[in-house]
Structure formats: C-alpha cells, structure tokens
Amino acid sequence: MKNLLMKMCNFSFGSFEEQEIKKFVRFGIIFFLLIGVYWTLRPLKDSIFMQIVGKTFIPFAKTISLILILPILSIYTKILRRFKQKKTFQILIYFYMTVVTLFVLPIFLSQSHIITNKLISNVIGYSWYFTVESFGSIMIALFWGILTDNTDAQDAKKGFALIYFFGQIGGAILPCTITGIPFIFGMKTDIISLLIVMCAMYLIIPTSEKFFEVTSIAYNDETNKKAKFIDGIKLLCSHKYLMGLLLMELSFEFVMTIIDFNFKMLAGTVYSRAELTQYLAKMGASVNALSALIIIFLSNRIQRLFSLKTAILTIPVIVGGVFLYFINTNPFLKTMFILVIIGKAVNYAFRPSFKQLYIPTTPDVHFRLQAWNDVFGSRSAKQLGSVFNMFYSVVGKMKYLMFNKVIGFPLVTIWIATAFYLGKTHEKAINNKKIII
User: Alpha-carbon distance 172 to 26, whole Å?
Assistant: First the structure.
C-alpha cells in the first residue's frame, strides 16, 4: 500500500523521500478535514442567510464582515503572541466548534418559522454569516502559515500540490454527503447538517494533535511575542513584492464576489431552504472535484515543466477570462454554475503555486502578513465587489453589468502584470538563495 501511494505521488507531484511523503500526507489529512468542513459550512452560510435574512442583503453582510474582521484579527494576533502556532490552531478549532453548536437551535427555530421576529432573525443570520467567513479566512491562513514556515522551496513544489489535492477531495466529498442527509430523513431544515459538521470539526482536533506531534515543526516564538496587528499593515507597505501578493488576493476575490453574487441571485430564485443548501453544496463539490483533477493532471505539471511564473500567470488569464465572459454575455443559471466552477477550481488548483511565493520571505511575512492578506485583504476585496453588487438593486441589472464592463479589462490587465512580476521576482530570489523581505 505504501509503495502504491509513493508511485502515485511520484507520478502526479514529483519524487518524494519516505519522510517527505509522511509529512505531507499528515498535513494533507488535516487539510482534508479543514477544507471539507469549510466547504460544507459555505453553502450552509449562504443558504441559511438567504432564507432568514434575504438574498439581496448578501452585499451588506460582506460589508459588516469587513468591519468585524478587524477586532477578530487583533484577537488572533494576541493569541499568536501568547501561544505556539499548533496550540493556536487547536484553540481556534475548539472556539469555532463551540460557536457552531450555539447556532444549531436558533437556526432550526428560524428555519421552522418558530422565530418570526425580523430583528432576531437578522441578528442570527448576520452572526452566522460572519462566523463562517472568519473561520475560512483565519483557520486556513494559520494552517498555511505553519506549513510555509516549515517547508523549503524545493519540497514545496511537490508537497503543497499534494496537500491541496487532499483538501480538494475533502471539499468534494463532505459537502454533498453532509448536506444530502436531511433529504434522507425528509427534513426541510439544516439542523442535521449542522450537527454533523460540528462532529467533523471535532475530528480536526485529535488529528492535528497527533500529526503535529510526530511532524517536526519549528516555532518562531520571539516573532510571535513581538507581533502586533498594526505590524501587518506596516509590513505590507514595506515592499512592492508584498503589495503584489495582496493585489493578487484582491483581484481574485473582487472578481469572484461579483460572479458568485449573480450566481446566488439566480439560484435563490429557483431553489429554497434545504434544496438551496444542497444545490450550493453540489456547486462546491464540483469546484473541488475539478480542482483536484487539475492538480493531478495539469497545475503541478505546468510548474515542473515550465516555471512557477507560468503557473501563477494561469490564474489571472483563466479566471479573468471567465469574468470578462460573464460581464459581456449575461448568462443563465446553468452557464453561471459552470463559470463559478471554472473560476474557483482554477484558483484553488494553482493555489499551491501561489503559496510558494511566501517561501523566500521572513517568518514575519509567513504568519502576520499571510494572515492579514487572507483575512483583511480578502474581506476588503469582497467588500469592494459587494459595493458594485449593491448597484444591482439600485440601478438595475443592465447598468450594473455596464459598470462591471468599465473596470473589467483594466483590472484583468493589472492582475496579469502583477502575476508576472511576482513570478519573476520569486524565481530570481530562489535562484540566488536570497530572502526578498
């Protein structure tokens, strides 16, 4: 079995030593659970919010998320200053598991129309939306901070893709499986899905404890003790390479926020309640399944045969093309379903290449700036996209699409230029064995 696994990994990702494969498979199992849980929570987040608050309020929810993420980032930084990264990871998993547990009853009562007060429903809906948004940003950023700080550039070329493959499989299997269970019991609410995803979150704790324990992990305690929230902003402004990393995050999130919003608006008119949750879960599972296939057969091979720069450029070229197609054709739901899948799958499949851009940087960048970009930078881009989405209900769909056409081509052009610069700078730093910042 071990030899078969080695052969499969060597064929798809590159040649591994025995200790290397053990390390990356262990991290891959953790990432399998983490992404599986997150991609199950995502359709639950959107479906529940649209049911008890309303689909047209999604842009406002993203706005509130941006405001509330600032204190969350500050708390996250303080926890990192006090505890080692492994301990911080486990503390936060316990926290989110507890919060999801507390939401089970209020969401059930709201979906069952037992809670009819609009103010209470809005509080539940917005709080739930923000909880899931922060989970995905903080937990995934922390996971990659730990991994990036303990992996060199050569190992990352093959190991990061393997870990992402595990994650995409988790994101393909768990959402459809968990959100489909209510239909087996003939239920119209998501209470069973919430209870199961809570149990899946719990599995992350013993898995991470065991695998972090047997995997050699270095800790930068002095860096963590000195870390402050404002340092992330100062660090960002200290070098154009770091600003380029942020711009890559901003561009993708802005583009996909616009596409995703229009997809969900269409989906919300066709499906409702648990059916809507399952439909969105199928979309998520399709994204992860396609992403896994691209990782095996395409993305990692592009980097190995050509260069990291070529792999990085693939993201804005394809996702930007999807965006330009959307704003120029005004497609129906089935076409939007395909566009969302392609855009997100390509980004996630080439994400291992993007994460490697952080390797020739200091531990400060690995933990503070990477988390800052993934959390606040991502939320800022979603907020900017949401500002455009607010025009949907104000000026109508045609003028809304016209506004997007105005910024579409210039944005994609800048995005491609940034990807080229980052790939070239990273390549030079690795070849010269130097730290960029």
Answer: 19
CB 138 within 8 A of CB 322: no
The pTM of the full predicted model, rounded to 2 decimals, is 0.74
The first and second tokens of residue 16, run together, are 């591994």
Asked whether residue 51 is assigned to any structural domain, the reply reads yes
Per the structure, the complete domain to which residue 134 belongs is given by 12-432
**pLDDT classification of 338: cutoffs 50, 70, 90:** very high
How much of the chain exceeds pLDDT 90, in percent? 18
User: Per the domain annotation, does 363 fall within a domain?
Assistant: yes
In a domain, 55, yes or no: yes
Instruction: Give SS3 for 228.
Output: coil
CATH of the domain at 298: 1.20.1250.20
DSSP assignment letter at 238: T
Alpha helices in 185-239 (DSSP H): 191-214, 221-226, 229-236
Q: Is there a domain that residue 213 lies in?
A: yes
Q: Provide the pLDDT for residue 33.
A: 93
Q: How far is residue 215's CA from residue 212's CA, in Å, rounded to a whole number? A: 5
> With bands split at pLDDT 50, 70 and 90, how would you rate the model's confidence at 335?
very high
CA 86/CA 92 separation, integer angstroms: 10
